[in-house]
Amino acid sequence: xxxxxxxxxxxxxxxxxxxxxxxxxxxxxxxxxxxxxxxxxxxxxxxxxxxxxxxxxxxxxxxxxxxxxxxxxxxxxxxxxxxxxxxxxxxxxxxxxxxxxxxxxxxxxxxxxxxxxxxxxxxxxxxxxxxxxxxxxxxxxxxxxxxxxxxxxxxxxxxxxxxxxxxxxxxxxxxxxxxxxxxxxxxxxxxxxxxxxxxxxxxxxxxxxxxxxxxxxxxxxxxxxxxxxxxxxxxxxxxxxxxxxxxxxxxxxxxxxxxxxxxxxxxxxxxxxxxxxxxxxxxxxxxxxxxxxxxxxxxxxxxxxxxxxxxxxxxxxxxxxxxxxxxxxxxxxxxxxxxxxxxxxxxxxxxxxxxxxxxxxxxxxxxxxxxxxxxxxxxxxxxxxxxxxxxxxxxxxxxxxxxxxxxxxxxxxxxxxxxxxxxxxxxxxxxxxxxxxxxxxxxxxxxxxxxxxxxxxxxxxxxxxxxxxxxxxxxxxxxxxxxxxxxxxxxxxxxxxxxxxxxxx
Length: 505
Description:
By secondary structure, the protein is of the alpha/beta class. It has two domains: 37-46 and 398-502, Sandwich (Immunoglobulin-like), CATH 2.60.40; 53-392, Glycosidases (TIM Barrel). It is 30% helix and 25% strand. The strands form four sheets. Strands 3, 14, 15, 16, 17, 18, 19, 20, 21 and 22 form a ten-stranded mixed beta sheet that branches. Helix 7 packs parallel to helix 8 (227-237). The termini are far apart.
């Protein structure tokens, strides 16, 4: 009896093994149900139909002659800069000038004074088709306007556009941060308004008002108390202002909790929706009493070449996450682009003429070897990884599409579409890891997609593939990501990480 039973059991097990079923049920492992609360959905909603592009503050280098004995950078330094910026492929850069450094010699108009540095950068921008936001750091005339200075300033931009042929100059920014007590305007809105009106008249007289847009008000804001600068500009100067911009230097807490986006949205809404609005400068400034603020002050004190106007977190990998978060919030709020502050420590100093106390905010210090006793300081810093991708893969003319987010702290995303190709950028500034379901309304298949990943570690350490130049490399290539008909791709987004998926060239 027992032997017959054993034989029947063996036969039954054999049938089960060969058929792959058990009692008529499929024994293939079932996937866990997809939780819609984890959906991250690229919407059909267009936040910006013609994105201008993310870019960087460039220019300066005004002390090269004093520091190095040469009016310009060495050929090898220029080659290094151009190689890196060419990989970054910024659609936009901001360059600010002043009379004494750029077009006056012994009181006489001398635009050729800018040939060793400024024109070399403009040549590059012209060649690479990079739009330039150009401008003056400050006005001359105190509580009035020096008419000779105004004429020279207008003549300089006319010389650059008409004589030198720099069609890459698209915007003119008349006076940096006019709301501040550090500005030549000293917060005097009526004076700034008068300056805009007179400068616009000069551009019209010289026949170049149609070739360059005045952009403003360029105010530096930390809350919504200066919205009136934008609304007043729109009400009183919109026929002369071609584009709008502000500057922000948020605290890390404001960006990480998302309140930063709400603040900048108020300024975007105060400007005409028919005109583009840019973030003219973006960086982080920490409360002096916060942990990061204390660390920053100590690191400045320990660096004989750092001025008190420095963010030493540019050396740290987490800064690449915080900046990506801030840039994405700008894009989600409808801004047409962000100017990152800034490219290179060697551009600007603080203190008396010739002082070697740098404004350390850059991706590197190109004069680390020549002047600042540290060749390694010329190396690319971690935050270049995320920022170069946010510039490179959201080109000019991209349609920015909103992304619906799951309710997860520190998670932000934005998408772009151009010529049928897509970029999707996702950042998680929180320490907790998330799993999300990437979907797309009226979706498509992303052919030949590449995925880049960056995760912050301790100090300057990060996980992210790079080539021999230090440039970001994808972790996957030639992938087809099928987001048609509500299909999804599950993505793990670790804490303090950034992910960019693109099939753009």
